[in-house]
């Protein structure tokens, strides 16, 4: 069980229960907390795993009442720190979830060195005294708004990535599409392929990765429909490709919609809901971000 008095963003302290005793320290860290062999090696070199207040080799047997302390502190990213007005939707010891505004790049690139969300999170971590790297769990296109998850330590990042691989994370979006969608709900299961020299534009092609998107109609207007979309796989541009493939491209999406689309300054796509298990406490968490004003106006 977790010791409630000895928890922080960089430290997990666990008291061994009778059902957990008998195995090695390494097996416990790998099986109970999913710590990878690579991370275990790094932590071993830095002596960041303690048992009962002292360094213990990984082959040490653990018994009921032993106190195991994992310290994940590390050197932070070298990205520039830039103050930014972050809209925090949820935060705990392991996670920071931000409601991203449209038009903001997530990671620094050749054309964006100091105006990305990463720069803002580096600044935020410094202000709260957190000496850790910025690790994004999910991704959003520059012009997509909504929930972005940042893990505050490598344990939380590994755990949430594993949850995604095992389909334990529910990701839902709101989007306005062109035309009236006839069916109240539906499922799109088409492979998505990234051709060479396509400029990043994905297509439906049998050579692509299996992809699955569900949708439900929330509102219909004369020439557009508001959908609640759920991702069952996580391919790049998946929602944009799939909805375009059924004749209902996202409003404002110049890459997968009508060429020269100017009715909306960005793709009308918003990541509004995430549901997952909190990595440390294993409690189910649901976080929502309301539809932004520009999409409400549609």
Automatic annotation (TrEMBL):
Which keywords, in A-to-Z order, does the entry hold? Isomerase
Q: Enzyme group, top EC level?
A: isomerase
Its EC number is 5.4.99.-
MF annotations from Gene Ontology: catalytic activity, acting on RNA; pseudouridine synthase activity; RNA binding
Matches recorded under InterPro entries: PsdUridine_synth_cat_dom_sf (IPR020103), PsdUridine_synth_RluA-like_CS (IPR006224), PsdUridine_synth_RluC/D (IPR006225), PsdUridine_synth_RsuA/RluA (IPR006145), RluA_PseudoU_synthase (IPR050188)
Superkingdom of source:
Bacteria
Q: Domain Pseudouridine synthase RsuA/RluA-like: where? A: 94-243
- A single GO BP: enzyme-directed rRNA pseudouridine synthesis
Instruction: Name the residues annotated as catalytic in the UniProt entry.
Output: 141
Reactions catalysed, as given in the entry: a uridine in RNA = a pseudouridine in RNA
The function of this protein is: Responsible for synthesis of pseudouridine from uracil.
Family label: Belongs to the pseudouridine synthase RluA family.
Quote the protein name from its UniProt record.
Pseudouridine synthase
């Amino acid at each position: 069980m977790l010791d409630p008095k000895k928890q922080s963003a960089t430290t997990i302290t666990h008291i061994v229960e009778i059902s957990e005793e008998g195995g090695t320290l390494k097996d416990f860290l790998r099986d109970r907390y999913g710590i990878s062999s690579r991370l275990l090696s790094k932590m071993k070199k830095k002596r960041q795993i303690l048992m009962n207040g002292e360094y213990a080799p990984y082959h040490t047997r653990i018994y009921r009442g032993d106190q195991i302390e994992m310290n994940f502190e590390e050197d932070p990213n070298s990205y520039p720190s830039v103050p930014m007005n972050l809209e925090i939707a949820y935060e705990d010891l392991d996670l920071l979830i931000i409601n991203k505004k449209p038009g903001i790049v997530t990671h620094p690139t050749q054309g964006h060195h100091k105006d990305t969300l990463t720069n803002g999170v580096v600044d935020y971590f410094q202000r709260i005294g957190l000496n850790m790297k910025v690790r994004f769990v999910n991704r959003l296109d520059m012009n997509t708004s909504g929930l972005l998850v940042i893990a505050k330590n490598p344990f939380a990042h590994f755990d949430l990535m594993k949850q995604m691989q095992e389909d334990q994370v529910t990701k839902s979006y709101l989007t306005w599409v062109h035309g009236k969608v006839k069916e109240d709900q539906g499922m799109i299961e088409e492979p998505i392929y990234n051709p060479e020299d396509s400029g990043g534009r994905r297509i439906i092609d049998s050579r692509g990765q299996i992809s699955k998107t569900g949708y439900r109609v929330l509102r219909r207007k004369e020439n557009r429909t508001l959908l609640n979309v759920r991702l069952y796989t996580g391919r790049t541009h998946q929602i944009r490709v799939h909805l375009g493939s059924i004749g209902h491209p996202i409003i404002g999406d110049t890459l997968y919609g009508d060429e020269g689309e100017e009715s909306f300054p960005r793709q009308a796509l918003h990541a509004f809901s995430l549901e997952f298990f909190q990595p440390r406490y294993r409690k189910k968490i649901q976080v929502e971000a309301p539809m932004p004003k520009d999409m409400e106006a549609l």
